[in-house]
Model the fold of this input.
Amino acid sequence: GIQVEQSPPDLILQEGANSTLRCNFSDSVNNLQWFHQNPWGQLINLFYIPSGTKQNGRLSATTVATERYSLLYISSSQTTDSGVYFCAVVASGTYKYIFGTGTRLKVLA
Amino acid sequence: DTGVSQDPRHKITKRGQNVTFRCDPISEHNRLYWYRQTLGQGPEFLTYFQNEAQLEKSRLLSDRFSAERPKGSFSTLEIQRTEQGDSAMYLCASSSGLGISDTQYFGPGTRLTVL
Done:
């Protein structure tokens, strides 16, 4: 089945710093989403982005489907950005979302 | 729009007992997903419904697990003869399934502890 790997696995930033999170996937996909799981466990959808670039405030994402990767950019990080970031993909021909290994982010005040 | 709700939020049971969880998706969302998440891992897909039809089920799911969505609205997930390895957070998500965006909205989850 499709493999989804994220890097880095852990990241510690000072408040105000920028970061780039990466998601690599091993096969062609129909859908790709980025999620933030906050310290209380709630999963929040950040982007639905099977291809192209989107921006939402301090966050933006780019997916290059032909090269099988997606990037999530966080600018001017805040302590509330702490948590785990997951990408999730759906392989062609299925409805099954496969979540990546996650990037655990901690933003220090 | 009140979001995805799940009930109960916490369940403690003894090994061998049956448990049932309920998920109420966002109204008019025709897609519904169940996931399981253990500590330190990402959510693991269990099953997918489009309206009342169960279109995909994980091969990892044993016969002790069953899910229904009888009228295409709420869904239930039942685990029979629970085992300690079933202890996890069970998550439900829904999406509208409309065209260009299939954004998933997650509920708060049901935390299951099997003693």
Remarks:
- The mean pLDDT of chain B is 93.
- Chain B is about 0% helix and 50% strand.
- The interface with chain A takes residues 33, 35, 42-45, 48, 50, 55-56, 58, 89, 91, 93, 101-106, 108-109 of chain B (CB under 8 Å).
- The longest strand of chain B covers residues 88-95.
